[in-house]
Amino acid sequence: MKRTTLSLIAGATALAAVTGFAALTAPAGTAAPEARTPTRLPVERAGLLCPVPSTSEVAETVYTSYTPPVAGAGAKSGTGSGKAEQPTARLAPAENATPSGGTAKGGKKPKAPQAPATVTAPGKPVTAEANGPAVPALTGAATGALAPGWTVQQTTVVEAGGARGLLGLSCGAPDTDFWFPAASTAKDRQDYVHLTNPDDTAAVADIELYGPEGALKSQFTEGIPVPARSTVPVLLSTLTAETAKPDVTVHVTTRSGRVGAAIGSADEKLGSDWIAAAADPAGTAVLPGIPADATSVRLVAFAPGDDDADLKVQLATTAGTIVPAGAGSLHVKSGMTASVDLPDLTRGEAGSLVLTPGDPKKSTPIVAALRVVRGKGANSEVAFIPATPAISARATVADNRAKATTLSLTAPFAAAEVKVTASAGSGGGTPVSRTISLKAGTTTALTDLVPQGLKGGYALTVEPVSGGKVYAARTLALPQDGVPMFTVQTLVDDRGTVEVPAAHQDLGVLD
Prior knowledge:
single chain, mainly beta, 5-stranded antiparallel β-sheet, disordered N terminus
């Protein structure tokens, strides 16, 4: 990643889709109108948020912005009044969100970003770079034909220091509720939860911490103000006076407004990466994309309800589903964080962890995440894999690179088919698509799907075709000086369409 610093792109987004529904009652004696099936239409606005990427002086960050093409979509989007507006998709620094101090590599004062990486048409990624510690959080929105499926990837390389590592994050939409298993308040960890407010009004957030014995006694965690268009980083270890806990579940909610939330984790021995929010609590959890050469895997789970959870633990490998040796089950007490090490889990095969109720008749909601390590000793690197929902319609991950990307697809419960498309490159190339058949209970790892004549980075889009539920994750591996640096991003449905109820106006005839 030795590149000239470019203007920083803008970064966070918030999905907004507004639909209307009107019901009119027919006069007495008239037949009720026939029910009409709701239709799905492309969203007209999407928003995203990217947190401050790093405070390291040697940080090198790349932003990749991409909107997948939609068949039959035009270059412009109507406003409903018959007037067309030019669609936009851009990121910009959040106000009051620039870290202070620091110099870039070579002793040069880092320049504040001036121009965003702006997507001008679906189907081609756009990239921009920003180096050094003065890179702010980003907020942004896409409109019109550029909104459905708009995706932004933030990728940072820190070659040395306490934050060494490859840090990757799919910039997320603002929300009001986030779960983060696999966080920590341990002395060798520096875990910051980044709260970013994209709106013009202030938000108020609460942070709850849960360790192995239950809720941690905490302070300064209620009513945290997040000013309009700003970001607030909070160091988890400063929120509690209790003994440091290696495994903590973090719950972020808002009392008013909405925020984007992600946890930046730095381990003195293992490197650093982002912890993305896990899927909402559910009785079943799927954690896809464990690298074949993982040397350590740690599962962390939490049951937020009133009941304990007894979980069956399985691994979907390239050949089929197996039970990890000595770790086929996990008991999670209500309100307490449970964890278990899974040594020699993959044994040279890429896999996906599948958690299901031990008793099919008793399903207790849980949240879960994995801490995954590659390498050994001083040449170790860490990444996190949160439980992720199945892809319902389409999901995209940006900033893929030739010979550095692995796409993991798993169909844990039933066979399925998916269409995978590698976009054109940011510097040139022709898109390539392939239909992949997935056997039930297996994980398929793809490393060879790249655009023809690729120049630059590219995006990968996954669309279910038939069969059972499909879960996906992308691993980006960029070794540095013997350290197997890597990061894993799960693919989340892009919510590119919204269900619009069919309106029916039949008032009959009034006498």
